[in-house]
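Input set for joint prediction.
Command: fold jointly, output tokens.
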Amino acid sequence: MIDYTFQWRVVWRVWPELAKGAVVTLEITVLSMLIGLAFALVFAVVRRSRIPVLSQFVHGWVELARNTPALLQIYMAYFGLGAFGIHIGAYTAVLGAIAFNNAGYLTEILRGGLESISRQQRMAALSLGMNRFQAYRYIIFPQVMRIVFLPVMNQTIWAMLGTSLGMIIGLQELTGATAFQQSLTFRPFEFYFVAAVAYYVIAKTIILASRLAAARLFRG
Amino acid sequence: MIEIQDVRKSFDTLEVLRGIDLTVEKGEVVCIIGASGSGKSTLLLCINGLEPIQSGRITVDGTDVHARGTDINRLRQRIGIVFQQFNVFPHLTVLENVALAPRIVLGNSRAEAVDKAKTQIAHVDLTDKLDAYPAQLSGGQQQRLAIARALAMGPSYMLFDEITSALDPELVGEVLDALRMLRGEGMTMVAVTHEIPFAREVANRIVFIDEGRICEMGPPAQVIDDPQEERTRQFLSKVL
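tokens >
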């Protein structure tokens, strides 16, 4: 027989603590995506233009980011860098590692998007006297962004869920904050259940918000 | 003036241009004809530096197109090109397609650029489509949009690369009309075309290219109506 009385009030009582954790989760998600995208935009062009040395560097980055566990990447940033005298906080370590990871995945996503834009679009842009940067900025990337919109959204959700690994090095993001609170009350089910719902709501909110933004941005 | 001197161009081991010499004077309309794969389109792309050349020289108003020190972006502002596949920008409206380059390349203010764009859009008779996206336009309308986009830069020369080849037959007329209008305004034009009757009508000179060389060149009355070369006769008998 199941003999368990749900105690939701204990969760409610500490909701500001959980909300603080959720804010950290959101912050790292947004920042790591922006940083990752900024790197990936440059990386994708470097890869596609096959610029020597730089292209190999990017290739190495992508391989590492995609083929090693994110947890290991966080450990590397937090503990590993210490070996070289670089000591960073848990927040920076998680942000750095997730951004590193995002940059890797996003590079491949953007590269695929770039491949799908006809070479003729670039030619048309150049024929009007645009330089290469203008061609990418005004003609190519705006078209790539429509194509990669869904995969980039997936990556955003992945990054958001991935921040939960931060608790391993003591970061008080949503999972970390939840784990700490439940340890005070011994109500793991209630706490983790609420955290799961919170993650779900955040994910759905991100998707909805970006759909709305896309509808405005990508007309035509 | 466009001067092409002994230009050679290869893709890997395939030599597509084998020593082309051609001069286009201001105000002239030159139509280039020839079989598919004879190098006509490649020649156009070489004129505005979209394709590199292996040897020879192309100058536009005295500026060497392929020289290292040439500001190619600046030079291209003077040479408009319209492609076979339209290549309009699908994410921009008709107005934005035309106004973008004047704004970001020529540094026009937004109002100036929009003004310029509207003038050229009216020129090709698309004023009722200002806010439409290319996907909502017919092929003929897209091609006219591409012409307006090139004209908005105020070019001295216009290059046309088989601009009616991808169009349904009933849409060819409206695009050729735009070219006739440009000719009437004295625009210097080089057009690669398969429309032989049109070439005969508008061209000052016809250039027949065969296997990367100029086989025959002269006024339409000569090249089309009374070709001297056997290869020209063979080609014309197939397409006319």
